[in-house]
Amino acid sequence: YYAFHSNGVTLQSLTRQQKRKRRRKKKKERKKEGEKEKEGNKIKKEKRKNKRKKERKKQKKKKQNKRQN
């Protein structure tokens, strides 16, 4: 960050509080990204589950038809 002095602007290292604030902000952003990803994965998982369910139903129907014939 920049510190303003009477002789102009100089570049200084961040204070501990600023570092902490920045770390927390980044952590929050990462968490948000992770949640977005999780949501996407949940949807994918649900789709796979439904697909398997459909497949099982199909197989069951096939078996029943075989028995009837």
Automatic annotation (TrEMBL):
Compositionally biased tracts (Basic residues): 17-30, 44-69
Biased composition (Basic and acidic residues): 31-43
Disordered: annotated segments: 1-69
This protein's name: Uncharacterized protein
